Amino acid sequence: MALRLIADFDLEKDVLPWLRVQLAASAAAGARGGGPGVLENNYECLRVLNVERNRNIIYTYKDNKGNVFFGLYDYQTKQNEHLYTFEKDLQVVSCSVNKEKTLLATSLVQAAKEGRSNELQPGSKCLTLLVEIHPINNVKVLKAVDSYIWVQFLYPHVESCPQPKNHLLLLSEEKYIEQFHIQVVQEDGNRVVIKNSGHLPRERIAEDFVWAQWDMSEQRLYYIDLKKSRSVLKCIQFYAEEHFNLMFEAPLDISLSDSGFKLVNFGYSDLQDKEELSEHLTLCVFTNHTGSLCVCYCPNFDSWEQITYSVFYFHKGHSKTFTTTLGSVDSHVTKGITFLNLDYYVAVYLPGHFFHLLNIQHPDLICHSLFLTENSEVIDMLPHSPLQSLSGSLVLDSRSGKLYRVLLNQSYLVEFLRSARLDCERMALLHCALSHGRDPRRLEAKIIQWISENISACHSFDLIQEFIIASSYWSIYPETSNMDKLLPYSSLLTWDTEIPGITLVTEEIPLPLMKVHSFKGYWEKLNSNLEYVKYSKPHLHYNNSVVRREWHNLISEEKTGKRRSTVYVRNILDNAIKVISNVEAKNLEPRLTPLFQEEDTHQQLLIGLMVSELREHLLRHLQGVEKKKIEQMVLDYVSKLLDLICQILEASWRKHNLHPWALHFNRQASAAEFAVFHIMTRILEATNTLFLPLPPGFHTLHMILGVRCLPLHNLLHYIDHGVLLLTEAAVTRLMKDLDNTEKNEKLKFSIIMRLPPLTGQKICRLWDHPVSSNIISRNHVKRLLQNYNKQPWSSVMDKSSFSVEFLPLNYFIHILTDIESSNPALYAFEGHDNVDAKFVEEAALKHTAMLLGL
């Protein structure tokens, strides 16, 4: 399954055995009123009421006498506690316990039984109580009204000693929210009582709201009120010491005027299934630590033929509305749609019909989100009962009484990657797996294995490109915020292909209006995201365009001999040395591939330039981050790029059982070498498009495999089109290893003719052959004549001791002799070991005759 559910709590396993022991002890002691009565076999009376910020779980049980028992499961100690028992047949609407477990707040209604008189206060439908439970003592009536009330204690972000004041939220069905301030004192040792219980301070913090959601982990209250029939989302952040702030207001383009009244994450009760509390819409707010703010909305669907739902990506400034047609309209497996918060993703789930995994960090391209439909594994992925998505990827199945942690199943994602048939599915699965990689090295190895087996499977994007960019991005993303704005996430900029089974409409939306001016933590990141949407046009993602231009300039200068400042070039090469050392230091196993064994100046310049430009890019846009940390992030990022390429090559070599000593020119290439050559060519193609560096030695290895695997005309075609590069190391090895058969002479001559002049002169000295002698002699003569000043005929002839009948050659020899004798140290002949003097004479004569047209 794409999602993995880990049960953190189960009523049947974690509470029921303890409850049986308590009931047995009570029955044996003949206790009355101090605990629940006899436990019957019908366990439906045992259910979860609330989950607090510290993950303590409040549950209730009604015994055979109708007494209401409140218990608490401590998430840290895994122990159960009895909190309180009401000896009346009541139905619980809501319940909450303060952090110190000294106060219990609850709202109750009369149990629906015929002929039963009202056991609550006359004229009231709902009674809200505050109970001292350390030890059990006084009961304070907070509300006795004819409308439902929900309660929730605040848990301030303070881990110190118990707080003298407690703060309690009351939400009324009459659409107002109040906050009570409750001061407690200790009496008679550890006994905790309410101070001035007759006059508890309170304040109204919201009115006329139609929807509210509680974020227990972050202590935030989201609510929607209607202003002139327009929905406005607001958020209150609660702090310690009675302090709270209205953080933002955001207009929502949804209609809630006729949707009734809805609460999210204020506990669970049977009342939520009743008509009074509308289930006609599903609306959730999700955030994560990166500063994202998403509102997920699904209106009441009138028919089961299709479903429409929207996601408002406020941190990106746009919304997306999705419409999907249901495959089987008869299978009504659930009341509505479920939204789940999965950190970097939001899951939209309708059991038996579809599963949509939405990428909320990078929602621009629909191919980065996974949509599955009519799949047997999707149908049974999650329980079919209603689920509550709590903070921190927690999900409560209130009907079964189970609390789950929902995680993306990495193993399933990789396996599904192997069987996926659509490019959009492969793209989404690749990113999803990398974003939740708990063992990156092992995960990368699995993905590389799949890539090597499906190198040509994708037609909409380059698999190697996407893997390198995405994996490098996720390796450094957790280091600091705003990386999603500064580093490329994908090799694609657009996606025009439709996703089968779903249609999409994207619209710009108004940004939230921040109501405070000083931000910390999550709010600072959200504000940064909003500022980026407002002012950062175009996008700030790094690309190698500047590196490409500067690298070409340096290579051109090298060819013309006009190299700029030595210090500048030295600094660039030092950057490359640091990266290469970093890559080698992180490699724990000996390499099979002969990489990093030569000084590839061109690739080192490219590596060093990328380090320099990326560092400047991040220093320019990452405010408040230490320069040393940025330099380390850049070093790690560029190292990761090279390491991934090395991993792909290593995996290919291991798969085909190749070894460095197998690469000899005097052997016929094997099928394994053909496969590795193909992989290397695809790597080269992928990196060239993005202008990414390659590990030094890559081009030499690629060239050697090309000579072994390709016919001569194909080889020269690859060389002429820049696919194979004639590195000095590769050509040197070729000249030394190959003998001078006719076939090899043709190959050597073809390659020498394609070498740059300086490299060609070096290589010719290694080949003992008339052709190399010809080239050496011509280059030497050219060098002598470059600065020649013509002298009178007589002065030259006087110095000559030669007597050759062919006068042009005689004159030419005199000139060369004169130049060499004028400065022997400057014009000393190099490479004479491979020069045949008679051949030089014949070659010079022939060349002169050709020039004279004889």
TrEMBL record:
It comes from the Eukaryota. One of its GO terms (biological process) is positive regulation of amyloid-beta formation. GO terms for cellular component: trans-Golgi network. InterPro entries: GSAP_C_dom, GSAP_fam. Residues 642-749 form the Gamma-secretase-activating protein C-terminal domain. This is Gamma-secretase-activating protein C-terminal domain-containing protein. It comes from Bos mutus. The lineage of its organism: Eukaryota, Metazoa, Chordata, Craniata, Vertebrata.
